[in-house]
């Protein structure tokens, strides 16, 4: 995907609809073994928050491409002792070929991108989780043979994962519904941006009504009620978010062939029940696997590997 070489992916809308489609195709080809590109590039991982899937899937993807990975986390670098992002970014730029950053503030990612020439990938911020949504889109494509026109509902907290889901869905022509408590609706600026980017056929509904949102939906998606950094309010959020739990009762309102997605890690008994995550409609393990395939496609494209 030629135009992607050297680009930063700080949000899902840094990709065009055509580029997302090409990435999904490349990811499918990498997954099936139809393509096996190789490189000797170096990926840096700089994660200010915990991670299992993103860390391991990026590491495995890069190793399978023949490249190497360096852990640059704050506890093992000067980053944790306060070296400015502007300095860190310019130094890392001289050593490594690509950098994935997991952080709190989106402006930190923007600063890395401003000071480093190498591609910067958002490996989750408080605003967005673009790598996750690429994996979700691949999973939806595998299940329904298409992404465009698919009705997908997100229940829970309208933050990072929901934001990328709304933007990615709008770009791909999906019918997106998001039901959250009033105090946790997605940021209006994100919804506005999604409405501007929405292609013909796309729909975006933001509501507080979980049952209406799920009716006839082909995808039911959820995420934790208290994200990393919000641990202090975790207990107090539970009663407010309870009506948005993905359980068998709410799932009965969805399409009978609906699939259930969760970015993981899951809190059984909170945003999703044991019966649903372990049930026959759950696709969460395929979704987690797809993180590796889409991120490998992203690495190949951003690094310009033939
Ligand atoms: N879904 C996801 O990003 O998982 P990790 O936090 O384990 O990377
Ligand atoms: N919204 C969650 C996603 C974790 C992958 C968080 O930010 O913690």
UniProtKB/TrEMBL annotation:
<feature type="binding site">
    <location>
        <begin position="263"/>
        <end position="264"/>
    </location>
    <ligand>
        <name>carbamoyl phosphate</name>
    </ligand>
</feature>
<feature type="domain" description="Aspartate/ornithine carbamoyltransferase Asp/Orn-binding">
    <location>
        <begin position="149"/>
        <end position="301"/>
    </location>
</feature>
<comment type="pathway">
    <text>Amino-acid biosynthesis; L-arginine biosynthesis; L-arginine from L-ornithine and carbamoyl phosphate: step 1/3.</text>
</comment>
<keyword id="KW-0808">Transferase</keyword>
<feature type="binding site">
    <location>
        <position position="78"/>
    </location>
    <ligand>
        <name>carbamoyl phosphate</name>
    </ligand>
</feature>
<dbReference type="InterPro" id="IPR024904">
    <property type="entry name" value="OTCase_ArgI"/>
</dbReference>
<keyword id="KW-0028">Amino-acid biosynthesis</keyword>
<comment type="similarity">
    <text>Belongs to the aspartate/ornithine carbamoyltransferase superfamily. OTCase family.</text>
</comment>
<dbReference type="GO" id="GO:0019240">
    <property type="term" value="P:citrulline biosynthetic process"/>
</dbReference>
<dbReference type="GO" id="GO:0016597">
    <property type="term" value="F:amino acid binding"/>
</dbReference>
<dbReference type="InterPro" id="IPR036901">
    <property type="entry name" value="Asp/Orn_carbamoylTrfase_sf"/>
</dbReference>
<dbReference type="GO" id="GO:0004585">
    <property type="term" value="F:ornithine carbamoyltransferase activity"/>
</dbReference>
<feature type="binding site">
    <location>
        <begin position="227"/>
        <end position="228"/>
    </location>
    <ligand>
        <name>L-ornithine</name>
    </ligand>
</feature>
<keyword id="KW-0055">Arginine biosynthesis</keyword>
<protein>
    <recommendedName>
        <fullName>Ornithine carbamoyltransferase</fullName>
        <ecNumber>2.1.3.3</ecNumber>
    </recommendedName>
</protein>
<feature type="binding site">
    <location>
        <position position="160"/>
    </location>
    <ligand>
        <name>L-ornithine</name>
    </ligand>
</feature>
<dbReference type="InterPro" id="IPR006132">
    <property type="entry name" value="Asp/Orn_carbamoyltranf_P-bd"/>
</dbReference>
<dbReference type="InterPro" id="IPR002292">
    <property type="entry name" value="Orn/put_carbamltrans"/>
</dbReference>
<keyword id="KW-0963">Cytoplasm</keyword>
<dbReference type="Pfam" id="PF02729">
    <property type="entry name" value="OTCace_N"/>
</dbReference>
<feature type="domain" description="Aspartate/ornithine carbamoyltransferase carbamoyl-P binding">
    <location>
        <begin position="7"/>
        <end position="142"/>
    </location>
</feature>
<feature type="binding site">
    <location>
        <begin position="51"/>
        <end position="54"/>
    </location>
    <ligand>
        <name>carbamoyl phosphate</name>
    </ligand>
</feature>
<dbReference type="GO" id="GO:0042450">
    <property type="term" value="P:L-arginine biosynthetic process via ornithine"/>
</dbReference>
<dbReference type="InterPro" id="IPR006131">
    <property type="entry name" value="Asp_carbamoyltransf_Asp/Orn-bd"/>
</dbReference>
<feature type="binding site">
    <location>
        <position position="223"/>
    </location>
    <ligand>
        <name>L-ornithine</name>
    </ligand>
</feature>
<feature type="binding site">
    <location>
        <position position="102"/>
    </location>
    <ligand>
        <name>carbamoyl phosphate</name>
    </ligand>
</feature>
<dbReference type="GO" id="GO:0005737">
    <property type="term" value="C:cytoplasm"/>
</dbReference>
<feature type="binding site">
    <location>
        <position position="291"/>
    </location>
    <ligand>
        <name>carbamoyl phosphate</name>
    </ligand>
</feature>
<feature type="binding site">
    <location>
        <begin position="129"/>
        <end position="132"/>
    </location>
    <ligand>
        <name>carbamoyl phosphate</name>
    </ligand>
</feature>
<dbReference type="Pfam" id="PF00185">
    <property type="entry name" value="OTCace"/>
</dbReference>
<dbReference type="InterPro" id="IPR006130">
    <property type="entry name" value="Asp/Orn_carbamoylTrfase"/>
</dbReference>
